[in-house]
Write a structure and sequence with these properties.
single chain, about 220 residues, alpha/beta, 7 helices, about 25% strand, binds S-adenosyl-L-homocysteine
Length: about 220
């Protein structure tokens, strides 16, 4: 493994330890950390920023959007408790980095991106990297992707003012939704939503985060 990748994994582990009292654990799932080590983040950052690809911070990807911080990607993936027979929905493909990490761990990832150019670039990247278990859609994912529902897990990588009911509806019983909630550019909370075996919803605040806003769906989309 490259030295820079090892450093990124060590940085993630350190930040997990710093935040242990908030996230309720000392370390992340070993499979999740392995996936973080397998996906080359440099492929997902814009040319010119490759030197920073393994720094534990977000980076701009154009269109006012960002590739999330590695620690946050690892944490959100861990919160989803991915299993290799899972079908997962991601809202906000962006660079496709989070998508690729998930694709290492589950059977199928459906991912939706609003900005056409970002969605198309990511789809090309997944093809070139040989991922056969990712299906992309360009469009507004605020109301999920009902055609393939229900999902074992749903991950939203942009902040919603509130949890969209459509996403809760598209969760399987026993499923988990990981979503940052809060107003744009205000303090936001990463939330874990669980639908228990009786279909009841439990929500838990995990930690304060800063995400770009999730665009709400218009009636046309
Ligand atoms: N996981 C991505 C994060 C990208 S930032 C990464 O690490 O690269 C969040 C993305 O969500 C942006 O690309 C933005 O265009 C997209 N987005 C915002 N609102 C959306 C919506 N309603 N539907 C689909 N994508 C949306």
């Amino acid at each position: 493994m490259k030295k820079s990748v090892k450093r990124m994994l060590a940085d993630i582990e350190r930040e997990v330890e710093y935040t242990r009292s908030l996230i309720g654990r000392d370390r992340l799932d070993r499979r999740v950390m392995a996936a973080m080590g397998q996906v080359s983040r440099e492929v997902f950052v814009p040319p010119g920023l490759q030197a920073f690809a393994y720094d534990n911070g977000p980076l701009p990807i154009g269109h006012g959007q960002t590739i999330s911080q590695p620690y946050i990607v690892a944490l959100m993936t861990d919160l989803l408790q991915p299993a290799n027979d899972h079908v997962v929905l991601e809202v906000g493909t962006g660079s496709g980095y989070q998508t690729a990490v998930l694709a290492q761990l589950v059977k199928k990832v459906f991912t939706v991106e609003l900005v056409r150019e970002l969605g198309e670039d990511s789809a090309t990247r997944f093809r070139e990297l040989g991922y056969s278990n990712i299906e992309c859609r360009i469009g507004n994912g605020y109301r999920g992707w009902p055609e393939h529902a229900p999902y074992d897990g749903i991950i939203v990588t942009a902040a919603a003012a509130q949890i969209p009911q459509a996403l809760i509806d598209q969760l399987k019983t026993g499923g988990r939704l990981v979503i940052p909630v809060g107003l744009p550019y205000m303090p936001q909370e990463l939330m874990l939503v669980e639908k228990d075996d009786r279909g009841e919803i439990h929500t838990r605040d995990i930690l304060g985060v800063a995400f770009v806003p999730l665009q709400e769906a218009t009636t046309a989309s």
